[in-house]
């Protein structure tokens, strides 16, 4: 018998069936995937340049235009998660030495500033404590002082639970010769946003929150002004994979015949198409109302349990992710672990500047229901009774 050359045996864990327990995902994402979207992702593959796949891509593009409320030609899905869209936005817009102003009131501003620094941009930050939002006046001061070519701001600050008002911001930026870049990963479909009317130049979001599709694709759109800035670049973007010139062609946004760029994650696109279709069927306004109503019910219930909401002003609360202070005498990790072990419900602790300070409860897309609000409140009540007892 020939002696095997293999020195590494097949891993035992891989020889067992895949284990995926049932859980209710009420953290800040991902959220549960409904059967129709799951089924779409499980369909047989087609070639990534087959006309049927190109048709699905066109439908995704139209779905994004609806969800973003934009007529922008340069609208497409990135093959990657929300971070990938964030990188794509920044690395296509910025060249070494460009100035960007980043509005930081949580982790997403911090991350955008980090990415922009890696790109060699001249980064300035305007800061607000976690739990607060920016006024037009806060932003104008930064625009006047630093004269940036791009402003980054987060619509739904999922690390703190803050909804950033966007009214007047695009107009303000344009008056100061600056483009407006908005992260709507956690807010899209859960709170109103109007890309064209609000003069947003670059907007991106993700698949795994309100759209209820698996992580792995992200939505992005560029205004004509943003497109022009990219066309004026003196240097190529530092990433081939995320080069918007290539992606625009692959997504049929430049009027040229489509060329192979990368093998798109076709099944992710099938799922994303269905997520966007569900949103289109429900209608944006109904979706916004649903998220608002369930968030109000959740906030009321949390207060009734004696918990303190982290975001004081009601209008500044993000309808998709609610934050409460970790109650005195409790360890946040014990509470989240208790919910997972005893109720099969995921909620999350804080992130970045809110780490250790808050608990985060997400109600996104099909997970944003009155039944789920009741379920998580009952589980939290149980945790508050039992986790404290375990510490005495
Ligand atoms: N921005 C915001 C506001 C987010 O909430 C998230 C995800 N929590 C991201 C960006 C990054 O998305 P992903 O984890 O899909 O890369």
UniProtKB/TrEMBL annotation:
<keyword id="KW-0808">Transferase</keyword>
<dbReference type="InterPro" id="IPR024169">
    <property type="entry name" value="SP_NH2Trfase/AEP_transaminase"/>
</dbReference>
<dbReference type="InterPro" id="IPR015424">
    <property type="entry name" value="PyrdxlP-dep_Trfase"/>
</dbReference>
<dbReference type="InterPro" id="IPR020578">
    <property type="entry name" value="Aminotrans_V_PyrdxlP_BS"/>
</dbReference>
<protein>
    <recommendedName>
        <fullName>Alanine--glyoxylate aminotransferase</fullName>
        <ecNumber>2.6.1.44</ecNumber>
        <ecNumber>2.6.1.51</ecNumber>
    </recommendedName>
</protein>
<feature type="binding site">
    <location>
        <position position="360"/>
    </location>
    <ligand>
        <name>substrate</name>
    </ligand>
</feature>
<comment type="similarity">
    <text>Belongs to the class-V pyridoxal-phosphate-dependent aminotransferase family.</text>
</comment>
<dbReference type="GO" id="GO:0004760">
    <property type="term" value="F:L-serine-pyruvate transaminase activity"/>
</dbReference>
<dbReference type="GO" id="GO:0008453">
    <property type="term" value="F:alanine-glyoxylate transaminase activity"/>
</dbReference>
<keyword id="KW-0663">Pyridoxal phosphate</keyword>
<feature type="modified residue" description="N6-(pyridoxal phosphate)lysine">
    <location>
        <position position="209"/>
    </location>
</feature>
<dbReference type="InterPro" id="IPR000192">
    <property type="entry name" value="Aminotrans_V_dom"/>
</dbReference>
<feature type="domain" description="Aminotransferase class V">
    <location>
        <begin position="45"/>
        <end position="376"/>
    </location>
</feature>
<keyword id="KW-0032">Aminotransferase</keyword>
<dbReference type="InterPro" id="IPR015421">
    <property type="entry name" value="PyrdxlP-dep_Trfase_major"/>
</dbReference>
<dbReference type="GO" id="GO:0005777">
    <property type="term" value="C:peroxisome"/>
</dbReference>
<dbReference type="InterPro" id="IPR015422">
    <property type="entry name" value="PyrdxlP-dep_Trfase_small"/>
</dbReference>
<dbReference type="Pfam" id="PF00266">
    <property type="entry name" value="Aminotran_5"/>
</dbReference>
<dbReference type="GO" id="GO:0019265">
    <property type="term" value="P:glycine biosynthetic process, by transamination of glyoxylate"/>
</dbReference>
């Amino acid at each position: 018998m020939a002696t095997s050359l293999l020195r590494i045996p097949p891993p035992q864990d891989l020889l067992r069936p895949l284990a995926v327990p049932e859980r209710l995902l009420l953290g800040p994402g991902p959220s549960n995937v409904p059967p129709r979207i799951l089924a779409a992702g499980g369909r047989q593959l087609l070639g990534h340049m087959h006309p049927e796949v190109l048709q699905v891509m066109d439908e995704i593009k139209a779905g994004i235009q609806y969800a973003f409320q934009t007529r922008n030609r340069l609208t497409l899905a990135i093959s990657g998660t929300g971070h990938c869209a964030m990188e794509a936005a920044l690395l296509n817009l910025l060249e070494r030495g460009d100035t960007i102003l980043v509005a930081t009131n949580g982790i997403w501003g911090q991350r955008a500033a980090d990415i922009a620094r890696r790109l060699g941009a001249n980064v300035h930050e305007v800061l607000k404590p976690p739990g607060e939002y920016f006024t037009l006046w806060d932003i104008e001061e930064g625009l006047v002082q630093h004269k940036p070519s791009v402003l980054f701001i987060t619509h739904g600050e999922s690390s703190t639970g803050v909804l950033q008002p966007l009214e007047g911001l695009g107009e303000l930026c344009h008056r100061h010769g600056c483009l407006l870049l908005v992260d709507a990963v956690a807010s899209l479909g859960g709170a109103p946003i109007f890309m064209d009317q609000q003069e947003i130049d670059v907007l991106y979001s993700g698949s795994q929150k309100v759209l209820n599709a698996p992580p792995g694709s992200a939505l992005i759109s560029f205004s004509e002004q943003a497109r022009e800035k990219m066309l004026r670049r003196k240097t190529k973007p530092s990433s081939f994979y995320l080069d918007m010139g290539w992606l625009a062609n692959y997504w049929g946004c430049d009027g040229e015949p489509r060329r192979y760029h990368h093998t798109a994650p076709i099944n992710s696109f099938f799922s994303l198409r269905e997520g966007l279709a569900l949103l289109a069927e429900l209608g944006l306004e109904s979706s916004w109302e649903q998220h608002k109503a369930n968030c109000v019910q959740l906030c009321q219930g949390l207060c009734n349990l004696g918990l303190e909401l982290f975001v004081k002003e009601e209008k500044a609360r993000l309808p998709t992710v609610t934050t409460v202070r970790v109650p005195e005498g409790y360890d946040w990790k014990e509470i989240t672990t208790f919910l997972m072990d005893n109720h099969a419900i995921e909620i999350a602790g804080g992130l970045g500047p809110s780490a250790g300070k808050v608990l985060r409860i997400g109600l996104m897309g099909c997970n944003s229901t009155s039944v789920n609000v009741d379920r998580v409140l009952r589980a939290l009540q149980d945790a508050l009774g039992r986790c404290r007892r375990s510490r005495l």
